[in-house]
Write a structure and sequence with these properties.
The protein has about 110 residues and is of the alpha+beta class. Helix content is about 25%, strand content about 50%. It has three helices and seven strands.
Amino acid sequence: MVAQWQNESVVSIQTQYTNVTSNQNLNWNISTIRFASIDDATNYAKSNTSGLITTNLTKVVSLPFKAYELTKESPPTVYRAWIDFEIRDRRLDTIQQIDDLGIIESWKIS
């Protein structure tokens, strides 16, 4: 796992898991951006989710949502999630907005 701070409000994490039996890799990249306001996070999400499907299912399995909820001891005031799942490309992309945070994830099997 490699974590890199891009600046004081953006961190990116890259992780690779290898299945030694099938010799396949699962690459997981995640970036978290803290915006100055919820409105700024909303504007970012709206401008970067073209073509993605809005979903509430992610909330159920979202580690960032649960971490936020446990840390703040209450659910966020704003939660939105978008998803794109490409079976042929074995890829999953999500964008989540949790209050003033934007979480961008990409999973790919190679």
